[in-house]
Amino acid sequence: MKTILASETMDIPEGVMVTVAAKLVTVEGPRGKLTRNFKHLNLDFQLQEAGRKLKVDAWFGTRRTMAAIRTAISHVQNLIKGVTKGYRYKMRFVYAHFPINASITNSNTAIEIRNFLGEKKVGTHLCFCLFPHEICGGFIMCRV
């Protein structure tokens, strides 16, 4: 059974600007600008109250389409969190038999991994993170 109209709104906090153009949502805040493409979803995005509220509609939606409304709202909330507070990523080195050692070299642009699978050579890998990062214990921490 299809529902004629299902909609949900969310508030946009102060200091954050959201723009919507053809299901392409752009969020700008103090930490930068993030963009998310929702063209694969059968939803309508509208800004209301002078850009302070975002409304997501699904016309004649099935159960799956109506579930996508809340998913889209959650993605936009995560974009807002990213441009206001930022994120911190952790990658942990684990091993079963051969202990791994890692260090950051080349002025924070490469990770040097020693004793990977018991190899004698030192593997140098370009860093996956362009943001400040450090090694603490068995973690590589990257702050975005």
UniProtKB/TrEMBL annotation:
The keyword Ribonucleoprotein applies. Residues 12-86 form the Large ribosomal subunit protein uL6 alpha-beta domain. The keyword Glycoprotein does not apply. GO terms for biological process: translation. GO terms for cellular component: ribonucleoprotein complex; ribosome. It holds the Pfam family Ribosomal_L6. Gene3D superfamilies: Ribosomal protein L6, alpha-beta domain. Belongs to the universal ribosomal protein uL6 family. PANTHER family: 60S RIBOSOMAL PROTEIN L9, 60S/50S RIBOSOMAL PROTEIN L6/L9. This is 60S ribosomal protein L9-1. It comes from Zea mays.
